[in-house]
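--- STAGE predict ---
source: upstream dedup step, 1 unique chain passed
mode: sequence only
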Amino acid sequence: MKILDMCAHMVLMMIYDAMLWFFDAVIHTFFREVRSRGTFNIPQKGPVIFVCAPHHNLFIDPVVLMMTSRKESGRRISLLTAAKTFRTWHIGTAARTIRVENFGRGNDNLVVIGEGTHFTENAEPKGLIGLSGYLGNAKIKSIESDTKIVLQKPFQVKFEKPSEKDKRVIDALTNGSTYVLAPHIDNQQTFQSVFDHLHKGRALGIFPEGGLHDRTTLLPLKPGVALMALGAVAQSEDPNMQVSIVPVGLNYFHADKFRSSVVIEYGKPMVVTKKESAEYEKNPRDVVNNYLETITLRLQEVTVTCKDIDTLLTIQAARRLYAPTDRDSTPLPMKVEMNRRLIMGYEKYADRPDVQELKESVAKYNKKLMLLGLRDHQVETLTKLNRVSVLGTFLVRLVKCTIALCLSLPGFFMFSPVFIVAKQISRKKAREALASSVVKIKGTDVVASWKILVALGFAPMLYIFWAVIATHYLYRAGWVARTPIWVVFLLCYLFNILITYSSLRTGEIGYDYFTSLQPLAYSLLSKHNDMHQIEQLKENRRQLSVQVTDFCERYGPLMFDDYTKFYRKYRSADTDSIDDTDVSQRSTRSLQGTRPSPFKVSSLADVPIFSHGSDDHASSDSEDSGVESSNELNLKKERTANDAVEQSNTRIRLRKGGVKAF
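--- STAGE serialize ---
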């Protein structure tokens, strides 16, 4: 029996590795560069929980995590995901193959109610009842009858000096409102599965923000990750049992764009031992809250977070101003670290007049570049030198660009239907995701994943189409009359893949040449007055570069012990990435907008592992924050299709002791 189990396990591992190899090829096709940093922090053995954030890419984030972990450390990671994900056959099949565990979420099974009310059948204790229009919800304490429910706590509303929302809530509860119901989900079985998984010394991946988003800050973390680590150690009979929690930061450069870049960074692990588990058993609430805050801080150390998109764009512009002219030689991990340090410095000294003035100057410079249609790296290449020399450079690059783009045309023509369909579907999915979310800004967090999914589904059919046409013409011409048709078809299919991939690479080279033509053309065609404006722009850049450097020199040593070493390496644009053994002493940043919801333990069955929406997060107003504030997400958005149906023919209003439907 043991031999059979070992054989089955080996087969599963081979399938896991094969799937990762396939996804690795897909990811490296979509992204131009995938880099990892801090992989020495990954424990080589023992139970590990990889805590990943921010969750900016639907299906890409977990694949990048599993791929880099397997490649750099040999660890195979299992993931936790919503049970809803498994209902889509193509995603569910792939997820099961790569050892993804599923769990229930409150709004994955929202009840549909038609005419009349049947609370005894459709509602349940500890479930939620919510008002339409996102006006609020309350936990059900008991169900008295089909028409009467007793709430554990009243709907949150201020009767004295009510806001506009409070007035709407009062009106809904007084005059009646449509509503939705959400069941109580028992996660005890999920927690036990996680405990068993960790007791076997395996690795687990989790995205504790609870759902997808495209914000520049982290969402509040859910308590599930801390409970899993502490609970696994507490439940184990091994006195030496410990669980490592490794923070993982996913940093994308234009996450939704084809041929963009991503850097995944592994932070220093936190180790949960028997000592911490003993404290957890005595005082679970404080221990869990402390761990959540620590995990949040550790995640901030490996991610680039900022309070708003405008500030982030300004910080990125400042980093480019500080960087050497040849920024292509600067490794991606170093760019990420520089962005992070500049944000930390700005957040700490943002109230100082000189810092505010510098931010405004950089923002104005950035805006001027946008108006001129230029990018920062092109400014230094603008020149008023000998026009003959400039013309020669322009013509050489134009020829190279033309050759590369011409070579890419066959593959572009063959594969263009995939680009068009993927773009249209991904935009549609982004609009749908944005409409059903309260935390998304543009819905770009689903774009890249849907582009890949559409390409994976549509590209094989397109290759078959072109292979059939090629096979037909080859036989018709009599060139392969003696060759079996399936061999010809297979060779044509593989040749189509080769053509499209070659076109991708040559087109990429051609595009790089094309972008370098603009400043040369600007220099050739500009009149004397325009050249004066160019010189002013270049002088403005030089002044800003000095100011940004002065900012770093003034405040950097106050925040970072390794300031001199790091910035000397960055300014030199060393082709080697930052030494992973150099762990910078980062200052503690405030947890604005990312403080985890306080946790109150009652039962693991009641604890939400993540938020109860695909990407919604809970407010922190509830007193039962750890349990109830997360559960409030069940009804925060009224889902369409399989998720929720609004009760159009039943209404509720507030009564003493409960709610009444009519």
